[in-house]
Design goal:
The chain has 179 residues and is mainly alpha-helical. It contains four helices and two strands, in the order ααααββ. Helix 2 packs antiparallel against helix 3, helix 2 packs parallel to helix 4 and helix 3 runs antiparallel to helix 4.
C-alpha cells in the first residue's frame, strides 16, 4: 500500500512540475536588449536603446527627449553616437515627411481626376436633359399630328359610310336638314 501511495505522490509531483514548465513556456519571453517604454532609464545604454525604440515606433518627440537625456549621461564621451542618433531621428522624420508629401500629391491627382470626371458627368447630364426636352417636344408634335389624323379619318369614315353603289353606279346618301 505504501508503494502505491509513493507512486501516486511521485506521479502528482511530476505532473505538477510539467504543468509549471508548460506554463512558463507559454508565457511570452521578453526580447533581449529591449527596455520597457514606461520604465525610466538611469544610464546611457538604456537611454540609447529607448531612443531607438521610440524612433522605430515613430514617437519622434519622445526620441528627441531621450537623445537629449542620453547626451547628459554620456559626459561628452560618445558624441559620435549621439550625432548618429540625431541623424537617425532626422532621417526618420524626413522619410515620413516625404511619404506624406507623396501621399498628398497622389491624393491631389486623384481629386483632380475625380473633378474632371464629375464635370464630364455634369456635361453629359445637361446633354441628356436637352435631348429629353427635344424628345418631349417631338412627342407633343406627334400627338398633335395624331389627333389631326384621327379627326380626318373620322371625316373620311363618315363619307365612306354615306356613299354606296347601286346598279354599278355611285351614289351618296344625303341627310335632310331641317330648315
Amino acid at each position: 500500500m505504501k508503494k502505491i501511495h509513493f507512486i501516486f505522490f511521485l506521479f502528482a509531483f511530476l505532473l505538477n512540475v510539467t504543468t509549471i514548465k508548460a506554463q512558463k513556456r507559454a508565457q511570452p519571453r521578453p526580447q533581449k536588449n529591449t527596455v520597457a517604454v514606461d520604465k525610466p532609464c538611469h544610464d546611457y545604454a538604456c537611454t540609447i536603446q529607448k531612443v531607438k525604440q521610440e524612433i522605430t515606433a515613430k514617437h519622434y518627440e519622445n526620441a528627441f527627449r531621450q537623445i537629449k537625456s542620453a547626451n547628459g549621461y554620456s559626459n561628452n564621451q560618445d558624441t559620435k553616437e549621439i550625432d548618429a542618433l540625431y541623424r537617425l531621428l532626422f532621417d526618420a522624420i524626413l522619410k515620413d515627411t516625404e511619404m506624406a508629401i507623396a501621399a498628398k500629391k497622389t491624393a491631389d491627382t486623384k481629386t483632380k481626376e475625380a473633378n474632371v470626371a464629375l464635370e464630364q458627368v455634369k456635361s453629359e447630364q445637361l446633354k441628356t436633359q436637352a435631348a429629353l426636352a427635344v424628345a418631349k417636344n417631338e412627342k407633343e408634335k406627334a400627338d398633335s399630328t395624331l389627333t389631326i389624323v384621327k379627326a380626318e379619318q373620322a371625316k373620311n369614315k363618315k363619307i365612306i359610310d354615306a356613299s354606296y353603289f347601286y346598279a354599278d353606279r355611285y351614289g351618296m346618301a344625303v341627310k335632310k336638314q331641317d330648315g
